[in-house]
Amino acid sequence: MKRVLIILAFLIASQTVSAQLFTKEKIKNIENFDKQRLSWGFYLGFNSYDYQFQYEEDQPDILVDNTLGFSVGLISNLRINDYFDLRFEPGLFITTRNLQYDPAYFTGLEFNDSDLMREVKSTYVHFPLLLKVSTKRINNIKPFLIGGFSTALNLSSNEENPDDNAAGQFRTKKSVLFYELGFGIDFYNQWFKFTPSIRGVFALNDELVRDEDPNSPWTGNINTMKTRGIFLNFTFQ
Fold it and tell me: Domain containing 157: what range?
C-alpha cells in the first residue's frame, strides 16, 4: 500500500516537473502569492498506517494488515522568508489496521480463529507544527522539504474501556506524539497553488494499553507498539 502511494505521487508530479525544468522561462502565475505574511488553505489525502513492535521474547511477529485511509484538514502558513515557512496543519485522519497473531502465542490455551485477529480502528485528530524549507521557485514550481512534530488524539482508542482482549477489545492510548518528515512540490496555477506532498510519520510513545492478565497472549509479549505511517496529501491554497 505504501508503494502505491509513493508511485501515485511520483506519477502526478513527474510530468509537470519535467516540463517546467527543461523549458525556457515562463510567465509566472500568481507571482506575489508567496509574499503574503499569512496564507490559508485545505488538504485532502490518503494515509496508510502501520505498527512497529518490539517484543519481550523471541516469538513470531505480529503481522499488520494496513488499509488505505482518508485524510482531510486545514492549513495556516506563516512566511518567515523566501525559503522558510512555519505551518500548522490540523486534520482528521481515519484508518483501520488488522493485527494477525501466530498460533504460537496461544500455546497451551484454547482459542479459535477469531482470537488470532484483532481489528484496530483509529480516528486521529492530528495537530502538526511543521517547518517548510523550499528551494528557489523555478518557473511555476517550487520543491520543498517539510518536517516537525505533532500530537494526535485517537477518538477510537478504547483506552478507558474496562473490557480488554479477553472480551475481544484491543485497546490503544488516546494521546500520541509524532515526528514527521516529507517532501512535496508547489505548483502555481493561474488562480491558486496546488501542492502534492508525501510524508512519513513516526510515533514517539508506546500506544498499547495492556490487558489485565500480564501473560495475555495478545499483549504480554509486546514491549512497545508505536505507530508509523505515510501520508499522501493534495493541498489547495
Answer: 2-236
Best CA proximity match to 141, nearest among 21, 12, 35, 225: 21
User: How far is it, in rounded angstroms, from Cα 207 to Cα 226?
Assistant: 6
CB atoms within 10 A of CB 81: 7
- Percent of the chain past pLDDT 90, that is, above it, reads 71
Q: Burial code of 24-50, b = ≥16 C-beta within 10 A, e = fewer?
A: eeeeeeeeeebeeeebebebebbbbbb
Q: What is the domain count for the chain?
A: 1
Give the residue among 111, 106, 126, 97 at the shortest CA–CA distance from 208. 97
Q: In a 3-state reduction of DSSP, which class is residue 64?
A: strand
Q: Give the DSSP letter of residue 159.
A: T
Q: The C-alpha cell of 54 is what?
A: 518490539
The alpha carbon of residue 37 and the mean position of all alpha carbons in its chain are separated, in whole angstroms, by 28
Q: What is the pLDDT of residues 14-43, one digit of tens each?
A: 444 444 444 556 688 888 888 899 999 999
140 DSSP assignment: T
Q: CA–CA separation, 228 vs 37, rounded Å?
A: 33
- Which residue bears the cell 505507530? 227
What's the rounded mean pLDDT across residues 2-10? 51
From CA 43, how far away is CA 36, in angstroms rounded? 19
Q: Which helix (H) or strand (E) holds 190?
A: none
